[in-house]
Amino acid sequence: MDSLVEKEVIEDASAFVDEFNDNSEFKVTSTRKKLVEQHHQWKEEAYKDMPGNTKSERLDEDGSEIRPKFLSNHTHYSPTDPDAKISVKPGKARQLNYAGQLSVDDAHHVITAAVASTAGSKDSSILHEILDQTIDNLDANDMQLEEVIADAGYSSGEALQYLEQKNIDAWIPNFGQYKPERDGFIYNNERNRYECVKQGGNKAILPYKGERTDSKDYSKHMYRSSENDCKNCPLRLECCGKVTKFKKIEDSIHKHLYDKMHQKLTTNKAYHRRLIKRRSATVEPVLGTLINHHSMRRMNARGMQAANKHVLMAALSYNLKKYLRFTRNLPQTMVTVLRQALKQPLAFVFLIVQLTINIQCVQAKN
Question: Which of 37, 41, 88, 200 could bond 94 through an S-S bridge, CB–CB 3.0 to 4.6 Å?
Answer without folding.
Answer: 88
